[in-house]
Amino acid sequence: MSVRPPAAIGLGAILVVLAWTLAIGHAVKVPCVHGEWGDGRPWTHLCYSDIVRLQEAEQLEGSRLPYFNACSESGDPCDEYPPLTMWTMRLAAWASGPDRTQFFYWNAALLWLAAFWITFLLFRMVGTRALYFAAAPTLAIYATINWDLLAVLLATAATFAYLQRRDTWSGTLIGLGTATKFYPALMLAPFAAGRLRDRRPDRGARLIGSAVAAWLVVNVPFLLAAPDGWLTFFRLSRDRPPDWDSLWFIGCQMLTGIGCTDVRLVNYASAAIFGGLVILVWAWKTRRDPSFERWTLAFPVIALFLVTNKVYSPQYSLWLLPWFALALPSWRLFLAFEATDVAVFVTRFSWFGTMNGIEGGLAGTVTQGWFMAASLARALILLVCIVEWVRSTQPAPSVEQPQAELGGAIVGAAP
Hints:
- This protein is mostly helical.
- It has one domain.
- Helices cover 64% and strands 0% of the residues.
- The protein is built from 20 helices and no strands.
- It is globular and about 60 Å long.
- The N terminus and C terminus are likely disordered.
């Protein structure tokens, strides 16, 4: 039996739902906002947020300029993010001063605004299906855990521009998104492939060119003026071992008991497996539905990246939320993904508490085995979502549709 979303509702009602989602998420975060973590509350209250911790870790409590001024020796990575994220943090730290609570709220306000803008853009594209984003438990949990919503906003705006055939703007927004977080770059090939299928290679070239140009405009000044600091993000990405909730860590842990020791091999293998699976899924979908909208391939590409990459930080799940609305409007699969993702969040941070000898909440009772099981379940659900996307004939918003139709309430039933 298909599960159907509510009857078509207006933008105002969807924004109210979003406000409640963000409010619930913030209520969970409040115990950690003040940075008083000595009692282990991030693990017992499940209120952890990078934003609270990174003001100090990124050495932003003074006047240090990211990339330009070297980080002092500490046990934490520093200058570990791309320029637009790093300098968003810098500006927020100037506004807040050394107060960690104020730093959190300056950043949270920006991220909440980004969530409202994303919801508005999704509503313009798919109407009521914007609820896949606005009502997501993942959004409540991760909206203010890191700065990923900024990249999600730029990626969603790039999709909106693409559907309006504003290819220069679309590419520019993808480039800016990539200068914020890497993942919007994954959308470039599907979007360009869509233009090639339209027999408009000039538009595809314009999209790619504007993306590269926007990324260069942001990054080249830092590369020239502070190359060592600017390269930190790339060095850390290359050298970091597989993260706790990646399939690589789970596989290595089960085989060796000590995790993955050859990071270079993991880097090459994950890239090869990712590329091979993307080609396989693309060919499979083309064989089943030769006329499918190529830009929707961004959904399985992002999902495959998360499954095969050596890092799946908790907030990366935000990347997928707009794509459930845009490319796979199945409430059954969406709820399955959300359930497993919440399970990963709960078991991850509870297990961290257990590792640190903290008791309270689920900390002290949740073991690594529970966490690994939840991570494996989430990966399995993502693979099922990819298979369902290949099999689905659900029409996507089309570039051929006039803007008036794109702005209507398009309600998708579960396959």
